[in-house]
UniProtKB/TrEMBL annotation:
Belongs to the AB hydrolase superfamily. Coiled coil: none annotated. Residues 37-56 are annotated as: Disordered. It comes from Nonomuraea coxensis DSM 45129. It is found in: Periplasm; Secreted. It catalyses: a butanoate ester + H2O = an aliphatic alcohol + butanoate + H(+); cutin + H2O = cutin monomers; (ethylene terephthalate)(n) + H2O = (ethylene terephthalate)(n-1) + 4-[(2-hydroxyethoxy)carbonyl]benzoate + H(+). Its EC number is 3.1.1.101, 3.1.1.74. The gene is lip1. It holds the Pfam family PETase. This is Poly(ethylene terephthalate) hydrolase.
């Protein structure tokens, strides 16, 4: 091995000192040097986003689906998996979605292929019983994610990045989404939709959370559910509150473009770490369909 002599070390030090002096002189003289460009997220999937792309009924990825029997899983009641057929862009993030009290996945089924077509693996779950409460639904969402990443078919499992997972749900499923985010801080995103939960304080949530409420919801009124939930999440956690103008508790059960657009943008931003979606989240989107919007503004 060749060792440096004192003279070689001295010459090296002199060169470093000269380079530093030149750099300081250039700055002092007002000569600006270009800052290095911010590297794109390695998880970016799909083309640059536009309003028309996010408002379309399908995103840029073709999708397929696979049914999951309740007899083949534990911890939740089965469901349907939607996934991109593309295998050329690497793995995708995954999201589990729960329906609300007394409802089945069919009430939200339009969301499955829509979200998957933007580059996600989606499992829409059936709950163990239609009467399950939020805490149970939260555990079932996490069980569904564990199934996706550990025990689903090779076709599904090979498409998933197990470090990039999210949860969502409607009504008590939305309450369950808060429970899951609170219980598993490693999740990358959560989207409670018209959430209902007797627990009003969620100061333990660190997962980036977008709460979507309905202005005229009489079952989970935003004043006693969505808004207190949002307020209780620490400001240090990324969060957003989207309130749909004139929307009842059941707005997610039919196609809702404003909800889907914001939901996809939130998932792309936090599950894919894709900053191309920042402009769709902050500043507040302008639409007559939105009665209120609050946001910490992405700063990750």
């Amino acid at each position: 091995m060749q060792h440096s002599t004192p003279h070689r070390r001295a010459r090296t030090l002199t060169k470093l000192t000269s380079a530093l002096t030149l750099a300081l002189t250039l700055v002092a003289g007002g000569i600006a040097t270009a800052a290095p460009a911010q590297a794109a997220s390695p998880y970016e999937r799909g083309p640059n986003p536009t309003d028309s792309l996010l408002e379309a009924s399908r995103g840029p990825f073709a999708t397929s689906q696979q049914s999951v029997s309740s007899l083949s899983v534990s911890g939740f009641g089965g469901g349907v998996i939607y996934y991109p057929t593309d295998t050329s862009q690497g793995t995708f993030g995954a999201i589990a979605i729960s329906p609300g009290y007394t409802a089945t996945w069919s009430s939200l089924a339009w969301l499955g292929p829509r979200i998957a077509s933007h580059g996600f693996v989606v499992i829409g779950i059936e709950t163990n019983t239609i009467y399950d409460q939020p805490a149970s639904r939260g555990r079932q969402l996490l069980a569904a994610l564990d199934y996706l990443t550990q025990r689903s078919s090779t076709t599904i499992r090979s498409r998933i990045d197990s470090s990039r997972l999210a949860v969502a749900g409607h009504s008590m499923g939305g309450g369950g989404t808060l429970e899951a985010a609170n219980d598993r801080p490693s999740l990358q995103a959560a989207v409670p939709i018209a959430p209902w939960n007797l627990t009003k304080t969620w100061s333990g949530i660190r997962v980036p959370t977008m709460i979507i409420g309905g202005q005229t919801d009489s079952i989970a009124p935003v004043a006693t559910h969505s808004q207190p939930f949002y307020t209780s999440i620490p400001a240090s956690s990324e969060k957003a509150y989207l309130e749909l103008a004139g929307a009842s508790h059941f707005f997610p059960q039919t196609t809702n473009t404003t909800m889907a657009k914001s939901m996809v943008a939130w998932l792309k931003r936090w599950v894919d770490d894709d900053t191309r979606y920042d402009p769709f989240l902050c500043p507040a989107p302008r639409s007559i369909a939105i009665s209120e919007y609050r946001d910490t503004c992405p700063n990750g």
